[in-house]
Design goal:
With about 375 residues, the protein is α/β, with parallel strands linked by helices. It has two domains: about 5-245, Type I PLP-dependent aspartate aminotransferase-like (Major domain) (Aspartate Aminotransferase, domain 2, 3-Layer(aba) Sandwich); about 250-380, Aspartate Aminotransferase, domain 1 (Alpha-Beta Complex). It is built from 13 helices and twelve strands. It has a seven-stranded mixed β-sheet with strand order 1-7-6-5-4-2-3, with helices on both faces. Strands 8-9-12-11-10 form a five-stranded mixed β-sheet. Helix 2 (about 55-65) runs parallel beside helix 9. The chain is globular. Pyridoxal-5'-phosphate (PLP) binds next to helix 3 and helix 4.
Length: about 375
């Protein structure tokens, strides 16, 4: 559907009415196997690990939204990451990874893949020159998150992808925080886009899933083979929930962005807050880059509580609308302390985050209610 706009493709790409019944919504094909007329003669599906029509619809839709030729879905974001590693890396290879990535990504590279002979080093990806300097002859992948989690630093996708190409390394962008509504890495030169569909794509905190999108046929073929061979595939109901979620992605992301900017401005002016991180603030040190490579700044805001860890812990137990929970990207607002929750696995490592840091996933509730909730919680935290 190359001629339609983003919102139209979110609703229609891969989601034509069901050919068998006319159902307007793609059915949940809850089956493990498919009848064959003769040996090997079937309608494109034989066994549901290899393929399922509900999953195909989601894979087609996500490829369209990221502007890629191929989409592949997985049982979780980390299953998608594991499949990339299994498909594209071997013992002796090196991965150059951002130094402010999702804690589970750090754990996968350091605690699982290192043992198998795949080494990873971590670098501040805000500066493309530092990335270039940290490349090694064995570097096969550059792994970027932008904006990063939880400090919302940006990486210049176009500049770093070009550096990777000169070196013969592929650039993977974890686009979970921005979603394709706010950022499309393939158009900026990245080779592979990864998502935890658990977050903004699903959008309702009711499903765990992952996806990979690429336009390179050879990379896609290796990923497709490994998707089936390693088997970290999602079930049809989970695919259906993500499909349902992406229909409203564009409108949700607009509201997430609007609410997040209001929350960031409110926090900037609050005496109990020493620092606010949001790429949509003109005061963000990489605001120019944000405007260049993003369309909208998503709903993640982090800030440092003036009273450090104790104040942060008091604050997150006092909000009423902001629910204290890990994860992000749902319609409801969440609050957490990364150092003690999502990023506990990087404590003591170079990726450690400030103890007084509070991360918000700003939802799409009425913004005045969100501001009032933060106001009363910050007052109590003083
Ligand atoms: C949640 C998350 C992941 C991991 O995804 P799961 O679906 O939880 O496996 C990876 N990257 C980022 C940025 C995330 O937020």
């Amino acid at each position: 559907m190359p001629d339609y706009g983003f919102s139209t493709r979110a609703i229609h790409a891969g989601q034509e009415p069901d050919p068998a019944t006319g159902a307007v919504i793609v059915p949940i094909y809850q089956t493990s196997t498919f009848a064959q007329e003769a040996v090997g003669v079937h309608k494109g599906y034989d066994y549901a690990r290899s393929g399922n029509p509900t999953r195909t619809a989601l894979e087609t839709a996500l490829a369209s939204l990221e502007g890629g030729a191929h989409g592949l879905c997985f049982a979780s974001g980390l299953a998608a990451e594991t499949t990339i590693a299994l498909a594209l890396l071997r013992a002796g290879d090196h991965v150059l990874c951002g130094d402010d990535v999702y804690g589970g990504t750090y754990r996968l590279f350091k605690r699982v893949l290192e043992d198998k002979g795949i080494s990873t080093s971590f670098v501040d990806t805000r500066d493309p020159e530092r990335v270039a300097a940290a490349l090694r002859p064995a570097t096969r992948l550059i792994w970027l998150e932008t904006p990063t989690n939880p400090l919302l630093k940006l990486a210049d996708i176009a500049a770093i992808s070009a550096i990777g190409h000169q070196h013969g390394a592929l650039t993977v962008v974890d686009n979970t925080f921005a979603s394709p509504a706010c950022q499309r890495p393939l158009a900026l030169g990245a080779d592979i886009v990864l998502h935890s569909t658990t977050k903004y794509l699903g959008g309702h905190s009711d499903v765990v899933g992952g996806a990979v999108i690429t336009s390179q046929d050879e990379v896609a073929a290796r990923l497709r083979f490994t998707q089936n061979a390693a088997g970290a595939t999602p079930g049809p109901f989970d695919c259906w929930l993500v499909l349902r979620g992406i229909k409203t992605l564009a409108i949700r992301m607009r509201q997430h962005g609007e609410n997040a900017l209001a929350v960031a401005r409110f926090l900037q002016g609050h005496p109990a807050v020493t620092q606010v991180f949001y790429p949509g603030l003109p005061e963000h040190p990489q605001y120019d880059l944000a405007c260049r490579q993003m369309h909208g700044f998503s709903g993640m805001v982090s800030f440092v509580a003036a009273g450090g860890a104790p104040a942060a812990h008091r604050l997150v137990s006092r909000t009423r609308l902001f629910t204290l929970a890990e994860s992000l990207g749902g319609v409801e607002s969440l609050i957490e302390v990364p150092a003690a929750m999502t990023h506990a696995s990087v404590a003591g490592s170079p990726l450690e985050v400030p103890a007084g840091l509070v991360r918000l996933s700003v939802g799409i509730e009425d913004v005045d209610d969100l501001l009032a909730d933060l106001e009363q919680a910050l007052e109590a935290a003083d």
